[in-house]
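quick one before i forget lol
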Amino acid sequence: MNKKIVLADEHDVVLTATLARDVDREEAYYQTGLEIEDAAIEAFDASNDRVWAGYYNDEPVCCFGVALVSPLYAMGAPWMIATPLLDKVKVSFAAGCCYYRNEIRQGFDVLQNVVWAENKPAIRWLKWMGFEVGEAAAYGPFDKPFHPFEWRK
């Protein structure tokens, strides 16, 4: 059992996006109007090298990062893409989350984004990670229901 989390490059992000779960593909499309690979590249480019990739036995599990929204207000938008392998290694994944929760918060006073209302596992994970999750409202180019989520220092 070989598990690792590394600083991600564009290849890691594209590979993970290509293998992403259906719920992640739908969420990215409904949120942005882009295919997940294009949305992932945009998120990667906006994240200023604050992107990580998780692997299990050299297979991609997830990529996650924080896109800089406002340097003036120290605000970022956390994001994550996962592959179906996440469901098989979720206990190991959860064990590493506490460290990376602190890592993604570094340098930010506020982290906020939205999560598709149909992505129930992501909503549970966000709450477990300490984010406040609000009521769903129409969002994105297709007016699908998304919950805002936020963490404040």
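fyi The mean pLDDT is 92.
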